[in-house]
Amino acid sequence: MDMCPDCTQQGGGLVLVRRRPPVPPGLREMLKARLWRGCTCSTRGAWALAQDLLPATRWLRHYRPREALAGDVMSGLVIGIILVPQAIAYSLLAGLQPIYSLYTSFFANLIYFLMGTSRHVSMGIFSLLCLMVGQVVERELLLAGFDPARDGPGSGDNGTTLNASATLVLRPRDCGQDCYAVRVATALTLVAGIYQVLMGVLRLGFVSTYLSQPLLDGFAMGASVTILTSQLKHLLGVRVPRHQGPGMVVSTWLSLLRGAGQANLCDVLTSATCLAVLLAAKELSDRCRHRLKVPLPTELLVIVAATLASHFGRLHERFGSSVAGDIPTGFVAPRLPDPGLMRRVVLDAVPLALVSSAFSVSLAEMFARSHGYSVRANQELLAVGCCNVLPAFFHCFATSAALSKSLVKTATGCHTQLSSVVSAAVVLLVLLVLAPLFRDLQRSVLACVIIVSLRGALRKARDVPQLWRLSPADALVWVATAATCVLVSVEAGLLAGVLLSLLSLAGRTQRPRATLLAQIGDSGFYEDAAEFEGLVPEPGVHVFRFAGPLYYANKDFFLHSLYRLTGLDAGTAATTRKERGPEARVSEGDPVEGTDPGPASSTAARLVPPAAGFHAVVIDCAPLLFLDAAGVAALQDLRRDYRALGIALLLACCSPPVRDTLRRGGFLGDDTGDAAEEGQLFHSVHSAVQVARARHGEQTATDSTL
Predict the structure, then answer these.
(1) Does residue 46 come out as left (phi exceeding 0), alpha (psi in the -120 to 50 range) or beta?
(2) Distance from chain centroid for Cα 635
(3) What is the rounded CA–CA span in Å between residue 561 and residue 559?
(4) What does the alpha-carbon distance between residue 380 and residue 216 come to, in Å, rounded to a whole number?
(5) Keywords in UniProt for this one (predicted)?
(6) In this structure, how many other beta carbons lie within 10 angstroms of the beta carbon of residue 389?
(7) Could you report the per-residue pLDDT of 48-102, keeping only the tens digit for each?
(8) For helices 418-429 and 65-94, what crossing angle results, to 10°?
């Protein structure tokens, strides 16, 4: 360990001793050690790996039934009751039969119970993912020659096509429209799940953090408008052509306006009644949520009442109202997703996997922070991926964590993921016994359930003004993402949001705040002279702060800000001085500050008069997060130009990574120890200013003697 000379001399007796870091192993040794650890097998290691992959095997051993069982059972029953109507309703978004939504809810809850690390997240169908799956399903149905706009009961064996030649190319001959739709959905889900599993295996859990909260909120808003638009035809009971590609929302609204005169009066009245009841019940639940221990199962009550009214009133036969149709019971035999369809949806699965991962990981981390425990992002990716990969063989589609159900789960006393097993049992009961009872349920009622579930996402528009006051860049990301989702497509909105977020991040680091500092009275602290009054600037010394990293994209802004604030363009002034004659020239190979350059060159340097009203520049490097090669080169060129003008350049408050970069980049010269830092790097701005003042006094005395 070496002693820092500056601290001994300037710190009033304080001594700073640097630890010698251990010598890092070579790449070969590191890879060899990791390979050995990975190939070494033992009973303890295998059990630890099993516990990591299946966290339920760890926490179930410590489960306390007296404390947690009642809350888990209650929350599981409530979530199961909510899941059933939502599963049936969200099948409209995905373009699939309701039975497949029930399959998805059942398997997702069981798998996440075994593999999830969050205690409170509710895994299952999610409206945004259903929309994205439904858009791919509709596109593939059109390419196969089917008519996705056809709806009605008993459509499972329909083979009507719009394009016979396309059907022969893309669709198996033994597969109807509903069969082909679920094959597309399972192929898409399997590919998305494989992406998520690979992200978890490669430990890419940090990738989801690049989807910022404003981006996710804007995406949810834009997708909610798209979902709302897609459900209006069911509210009105009209048949409108399906629109694909950019401008789908606008085209759908124009088609709805043209076909509004053909609305089904029965569906319109049913929709108005259900919307009024659902919205009133939701508003009442929000206002009385502190008094209600269990949220009102409004959706289930409305669906049961509407089903009874539709069945006994024979609304489908008498008024032509569209209904859900036959819902079979039991499970269908598992089937391998079609490899040909998997190749067709490889690109469509990318945004689906990203959105599912981002929402699931962010919700898991949010609930973990609020309840005082931790989650593992990579394990969450594995859990969500397996919730998509394994159920894809059982005719299920993409799943994710859902905020609304997770909040209900927490509010009803959930302690562990054992509540997911109870929810799966409720869904299983519906699958085995109760599913056929919903045959006469009107599609307009299901559309009302979907639209009312969008209240939370649509209400986020009220947060935009506050977000604008807090961060205009984040507000721009929110608005641009939502607008692109509505005007172009959901996938384009996600891509636009990611690009704008990255550009916003780059812009903030490319032009950070740059200021000159001055001393706070007689203390050793310095602050922004433009922001605070009464500060005392050091005569002849400029203290410059650059509140950001110094790298290739902002090195020119760094120099421009420094030249502007100090009133001297060091590069131009040094070049001009060199051109005037050899007597003022300072060569590029001069020794660095703090070393002994020899008597001749030292005398020559002292004879160079300062080119401005200051003799030293101190750079406060505390906000300097990192340096790259271009940043080190910019500091080297700046020091050379300042030295040619008789001005000293000192760096203060450098973090260890910045000091290491300066040492490796040659800024400190050929020495490798602390002697290289002496005279150039200082642990505080005040010590650097004092050294600059002392050096200038010595130089002035020497020059007067000469």
Answers:
(1) alpha
(2) 35
(3) 5
(4) 18
(5) Membrane, Transmembrane, Transmembrane helix
(6) 21
(7) 888 889 999 999 988 988 888 988 998 888 888 888 888 888 888 888 988 999 9
(8) 50
